[in-house]
Amino acid sequence: EVQLVESGGGLVQPGGSLRLSCAASGFSINNYAMAWVRQAPGKGLEWVSNISGSGSSSYYADSVKGRFTISRDTFENTVYLQMNSLRAEDTAVYYCARRYGSGSPHFDYWGQGTLVTVSS
Amino acid sequence: QSVLTQPPSVSGAPGQRVTISCTGSSSNIGAGFAVHWYQQLPGTAPKLLIYDNTNRPSGVPDRFSGSKSGTSASLAISGLQAEHEADYYCQSYDGSLSVYVFGTGTKVTVL
User: How far is A102 from chain B (nearest CA, A)?
Assistant: First the structure.
């Protein structure tokens, strides 16, 4: 059974840092691209970042480029999102998702999400 | 800022059929990129409902159906039930922006 479990969210001050983790089970992240998608309170979904199945390529939304870094540990089968220089507008539930397909990929499995609150 | 536009809300009586539109542009849906749909029940994570315009993952009932034409796509729910009350999002890829894009979201209410 495919499962994604996020952790690492919490309250952080503006300008601070946080690292989110996404532990995958039921499949190997070596075989799939993985993504982070966030949802601000009462708002819609926003793609944040994804990393290729080989781990050699990563992509970011303009809103987080230069501040967030996606990485992975294939031994632990875990994906990370390092978030630096956090802003109030980064407050959201962050979901980890498995990306499936090529050309026009979709996200076939999602974690339960972890809440990040940026506030003083 | 979402580049795919959906109606904020749709409603229907139990048993009725409702449709949700998703309007994009020539750089995403109109460029041939597939449209996918997600259901988000209150307080839960999104769940894949339709992929590649018309396909249902295993376990999704055939009361849910998708279509695509030109720069738009639609999700139809037939035999509306109370359990279908949720937010629904479309998603595609934008070739000009090189990003995955989501719709603005539609809240479905069962009257």
Answer: 10
How far apart CA B15 and CA A54 sit, in angstroms, is: 47
Q: Which of A50, A103, A110 sits opposite B46 (nearest CB)?
A: A110
CA distance B37 to B106: 11
Q: Is the pLDDT of residue A4 over 80?
A: yes
Mean pLDDT, rounded, of chain A: 96
Q: Can you say whether residue B79 is alpha, beta or left, with left for phi > 0 and alpha for psi between -120 and 50 degrees?
A: left
Residues of B whose CB is below 8 A from A105: 93, 100
Chain segment B57-76, per-residue pLDDT in tens: 999 999 999 999 999 999 99
Q: How far apart are CA A97 and CA A48, in angstroms?
A: 11
